[in-house]
Write a structure and sequence with these properties.
Strand content: 15-25%
Structural class: alpha/beta
Number of domains: 3
Helix content: 40-55%
Number of strands: 10
CATH superfamily of the largest domain: Tetrapyrrole methylase, N-terminal domain
Shape: elongated
Length: 270
């Protein structure tokens, strides 16, 4: 089937298993004049495997702006360019936004190829009650920011990336905030030691007590009763600030339009 030619291609690359690349992606990488990539050494391994001889130019978050003029000049001279990341789909927690914005401003045609992505690979094998989820990229590092994000998305299945060095600490912070809830963790997706586990945080912490390796994707399941969870969080916060039970009852009954006795009873049960 004859394909339309574009000026610029966004080409997904394997997230682990080097065979997870489409025939079309290999064809495009062979036909373009330049491949813009995060790390030329990593991309070169992929190109060598498929005997692709196309020239690579580094394009990463530290040189995005300075590469713009070079790429635009090449395109004006009739060259075609493909953008790849080290693994997965460009623009999904990877560089690309700057060049895509400039391409659109300057009238160049862009085509994105379908392909490997850790988020969809992970979600496609998880039990979920609905299709809705919120993806936030890498979760913030500080405890306060993690708590803010988790609280903000109580009503959503929350998906995020995290490093193997921090994931266990992050899970501990989430447990302190929301209790021993069920979460899913995926690591080394598509690789030899791929592992996806869904369980309570405590059981996952026990399972990975000796450490965890590989690229991490995590899902926190939406709270089935988010208003109750929000209420209990507010109670904990107000208690930590020194408010008395009766004062908390008055404050939260006003905010949530509930009877003071109902709030007070929940206080006694906690």
């Amino acid at each position: 089937m004859e394909q339309r030619n574009f000026s610029f291609y966004i080409v997904p690359t394997p997230i682990g298993n080097i065979r997870d690349i489409t025939f079309r992606a290999v064809d495009i990488l062979n036909k373009v004049d330049i491949i813009a990539c995060e790390d030329t050494r990593i991309t070169q391994k992929l190109l060598n495997h498929y005997d692709i001889k196309t020239k690579c130019i580094s394009y990463h978050k530290y040189n995005e702006r300075e590469r713009i003029d070079f790429f635009l000049n090449e395109l004006r001279n009739g060259k075609r360019i493909a953008l790849v990341s080290d693994a997965g789909t460009p623009m999904i927690c990877d560089p690309g936004n700057v060049i895509i914005e400039e391409l659109n401003k300057n009238g160049f045609t862009v085509s994105a190829l379908p392909g490997a992505c850790a988020v969809t690979t992970f979600l496609s094998q998880l039990p979920r009650n609905n299709e809705e989820f919120t993806f936030i990229g890498f979760i913030p590092r500080s405890e306060k920011q993690i708590e803010e994000v988790v609280q903000k998305y109580l009503r959503n299945n929350l998906v995020f990336y995290e490093s193997p060095e921090r994931i266990l600490k992050t899970l501990g912070i989430i447990r302190n905030l929301r209790g021993d809830i069920r979460v899913s963790i995926g690591r080394e997706l598509s690789k030899l030691y791929e592992e996806v586990k869904t369980d309570t945080i405590s059981r996952l912490l026990e399972h990975f007590k000796n450490g965890i390796r590989g690229e991490i994707v995590c899902l926190i399941y939406a709270d089935e009763n988010p208003e109750t969870a929000e209420l209990e969080q507010k109670i904990s916060i107000l208690k930590s600030k020194g408010f008395k039970d009766k004062e908390i009852s008055v404050i939260l009954s006003t905010l949530y339009n509930k009877k003071k006795n109902e709030i007070y009873k929940r206080l006694l049960d906690m």
